[in-house]
Amino acid sequence: MNEMDKNRQHPPVSILDTFLLHALHFLPLFARGLFLPKRWVYRLLAHSAWPRLARTLICGLRAKYGSDHLWVSLLRIKKPFRLALGRTLLVYDAESIRTILHTPAACQGRPERFAADPPVKRERVGLFAPGALVMSGGEQACPKRELNHRVLESERPIHHHGAAFLGLIRVETARILAQDARELKWDQFAELSLRVTLQVVLGEGRVDRGLFEHLERMIASASCVALPLRSRRFDAFYAALEQHLQRNPGPALIEGWAELFGSDSPPSWSAYQVTHWLFAMKDSLETHTARTLALLAAHPQTESEVHRELHQALGETSSQVGVLDAGAIASLRLLEGCVNEAIRLWTPIPLLVRRVVAPVELGGAMVPKDCDVVIDAGYNHRDPRRYGIAADRFSPKLWVNGGPMPPMDHFSNGERQCAGMRLGLFLIKAIVAELLLADRFALDKPHLDASEPLPLALDHYAIRFRRGAA
Ligand code: HEM
After folding, report:
1. Alpha helix stretches (DSSP H) within 267-346
2. Chain centroid to CA 191: how far?
3. pLDDT at 75
């Protein structure tokens, strides 16, 4: 930057526009629930003009201020019942987003420039999974990142327990389908995901519902907007989890737990990390499985192509006749495109927040230390200025042919990209593949029309399929 440019500032948003941004965009996102989704808010958003107005507002603000970097004063809950405004840069520029997400994280003396542990994450996640990677920054995040990538096998296309995970998905899918021959509804997706998650993480047969109930109560206490608290269930939950960690689970993520840490005993944060896996996996499996199946049912041509892909994979599989093996699941690229589209269209983590650790240049202007930068991923993935009408269409083939144009950060990006991305995609694909091979599903609710732009908000809790429909 030359001398003159040093004084360049990104535009601040007026008080009225700040108010509108809160009312139409940030507060509804916050109200959906930070960690535990609130069904009634999803229902309300799906049946209101809010999401559309929010998108129009953001498009308008970018045009009005002539910038893809906007300074806003964002409302924060400082202490219980005390609100404060924090200086925050909203970043819509693809190059700046790349800089933020691809700047290496702190490790072995390398300083941190964008910390991924802003107070809202640290304080809230800290109430139920203190020390988990997702809420950690600086050097202390290094060993945690290593453990996550090692256990979740983020670099491998198929987890070494992939075949075992697929086997239990097959059993659990058949169990759910046997419950009702006419319909498939949200509660069944939730039940299936609970059973699969507990067994993938803790071991076959470990369907410890009590453990999950404790976890949900802990998350509910931490999510309370006005007065977030550590739940009274905290100690009971971790005592029960500890028992699982000490037993040999067979093929599961916690297999060989003690050996992972060599001669040292597992650090205190390791149990908290398992908690994050349980919570992230259950939530992502149920939501994205149901949404992917709904998108396929609403797009019969793509559904037929996915069926062709499945039958081709069945023909090539080396395992028993009529059954897909783990390699076949990994090879389903069109189905993977469908899952990625479900996640893009209804981005589950819509805001990626980073704290600026030292002054940094972004988009030709300096950003001072201690401000937050916010990547509005949910908006970006549906940005009509960037993707035109394709923003609201179901386009799984884009993912087969090299991926859509950036910024596409539904799993975040760079070193702090989701460590469970490959495993999550594998499990979701496996569940959808098993369902599609078992039956035909027609979408009764909510209404999705392939000839119309897809809605910006979807009430997935209302999802209901009629079974056996040709
Ligand atoms: C399949 C759907 C999933 C989506 C869309 C997703 C998305 C994300 C995103 C956007 C982040 C970055 C959050 C941020 O920077 O603020 C993240 C981080 C993370 N996710 Fe996922 N996730 C998914 C599933 C999973 C699963 C199943 C696991 C584990 C079993 C997992 C484990 C993690 C971990 C450990 C991090 C922290 C990575 C780091 O900070 O270096 N995720 N995920």
Report:
1. 269-298, 300-316, 326-330, 333-345
2. 19
3. 83
| Residue 20 CA to ligand 1 centre (angstroms) | 30
Q: How far apart are CA 304 and CA 1, in angstroms?
A: 54
Task: Tell whether ligand 1 has an atom less than 6 A from the beta carbon of residue 424.
Answer: yes
Give 138 Cα–ligand 1 centroid separation in angstroms. 18
DSSP annotation of 348: S
The residue contributing the CA closest to ligand 1 atom 20 is: 418
Q: How far is the CA of 416 from the centre of ligand 1 (A)?
A: 9
Which domains, ranges and CATH numbers included, belong to the chain? 4-467 (1.10.630.10)
Beta carbons within 8 Å of 84's beta carbon, 6+ residues apart: 75, 76, 78
**How remote is the CA of residue 1 from the centroid of ligand 1, in Å?**
35
Atom of ligand 1 nearest to the CA of 425: 1
Whether 281 lines ligand 1, by a CB cut-off of 6 Å, is yes
Supply the pTM of this predicted model: 0.96
Q: Is the CB of 133 under 6 A from ligand 1?
A: yes
Q: Write down the pLDDT at residue 283.
A: 97
Residue 305 in this model has a pLDDT that exceeds 80: yes
Over residues 310-339, the pLDDT tens digits come to 999 998 766 666 789 999 999 999 999 999
In short, whether 285's Cβ falls inside 6 Å of ligand 1 is: no
Burial class, 132, CB count within 10 angstroms (exposed 0-12 / middle 13-18 / buried 19+):
buried
CB neighbour list of residue 308: distance below 8 Å, 6 or more residues apart: none
Instruction: Compute the distance from residue 148 Cα to the ligand 1 centre, in Å.
Output: 10
**3-state SS, residue 373:** strand
